[in-house]
Amino acid sequence: MKYIIETNALSKQYGNNYSVNDVCLKIRPGCVYGFLGPNGAGKSTTMKMLLGLVKPTGGEILMFGRELDDRSRMQILRQTGSLIESPSYYGHLNGRENLQIIQTLKKVPKEEIDEVLAIVRLESQQKKKVREYSLGMKQRLGLAAALLGRPRLLLLDEPTNGLDPSGIQEMRELISQLPGHYGMTVMVSSHLLSEIDQMATDVGIIDKGKLIYQGSLQKLHDKARSSIHIRVLNQSAAVRILGEYREPYELSGEELVFTEREDGQIANLVTLLAGKGAQVTRVTEKQKSLEDIFLKLTGKQVSL
Question: Residue 57 gets which letter from DSSP?
Fold first, then answer.
């Protein structure tokens, strides 16, 4: 199977507005697919359609090589775990008792409760009432419930929302290890660019319901070529010199900006400017971040 999730022209319309518009996802088995976009971009709606919780206005959904419809939905969902929005739980019960309810509903062996508690590192807290859990512990309990049944596919919608830095780090580590250790494919949504950058292998960027980028995270970074910034005391002389030698550049405040160059080319450029009286004071290399790329694609800033 080439893709564990594939959608064709997937759309959801509310009134005259499209929450999701012609989205074509292609998610490879065994990857962590970061579904990135600002709040309200259509991430949650897309994931709910993949789970059959929201009916698409148009398009097609293929999961595990089968079309998602009323006949196939239950068989597909048996292989799928999910944590959409905030986890549900019974506060007066302890962590283990909450998982026992899910284990009974899913009809999976009791031994799996110990397995998922170990995965999310809640063994020592399993007898504690869930109402006494921290937000991070509740998120981990929700992840444990999603892991019951050993799903091949896991859909996580903003799993780090509201967590403190240590909770975010812990959740990130848990998600990152799932494909390698347990053979799962994970689709995780977030509006936090730094989060996706640190745990995803593949990424899809959605904005205003449209999928505007899809591919490996490495290819996205490759789009960000570094640039050379040179500061001079005599900018008018530098501009004249560069014009004479037909060297392409851009002005950014007090700096001359050049595209990425080899070390020898940079040395020749600096020698030229210094030798002709431009008085070079500083040379720096700047690399675009994932945030810069996102801004270029969407024209808006999102949370870090």
Answer: S
Q: How far apart are CA 94 and CA 133, in angstroms?
A: 9
As to burial, measured by CB atoms within 10 angstroms (0-12 exposed, 13-18 middle, 19+ buried), residue 10 is buried
Q: For 40-48, what is the mean pLDDT? A: 94
* 142 and 34 belong to one structural domain: yes
d(CA 270, CA 291): 30
Q: Is there a single domain that holds both residue 70 and residue 181?
A: yes
End-of-domain residue from the set 201, 222, 243: 222
Q: Are strands 227-232 and 210-216 parallel, antiparallel or unpaired?
A: unpaired
Tokens standing for residue 254: 């007090």
- Please tell me whether residues 40 and 158 are part of one structural domain: yes
The span from the CA of 55 to the CA of 61, in Å, is 11
In a domain, 296, yes or no: no
- Taking only the tens place, the pLDDT of each residue in 75-124 is 999 999 999 877 889 999 999 999 999 999 999 999 999 999 999 999 99
What is the residue whose two structure tokens read 């080319």? Answer: 265
- The whole-angstrom separation of Cα 181 and Cα 193 is 25
Domain extent at residue 252:
227-287
Residue-wise pLDDT for 265-288, tens only, equals: 999 999 999 999 999 999 998 876
Task: Let me know whether 80 and 212 are in one domain.
Answer: yes
Q: Is residue 218 one of the residues assigned to a domain?
A: yes
Residues 77 and 166 in one domain: yes
Same domain, 77 and 211: yes
Report phi then psi at 16, rounded to 5: -95, 0
Helix 95-106, helix 135-147: angle, nearest 10 = 20
Contact 162, 135 (CB under 8 A): yes
pLDDT reading at 235 higher than 70? yes
What pTM value is reported for the model?
0.78
* CA distance to 32, 100, 293, per residue, from 301 (Å): 24, 43, 10
Question: 230 falls in which pLDDT band (50, 70, 90)?
Answer: very high
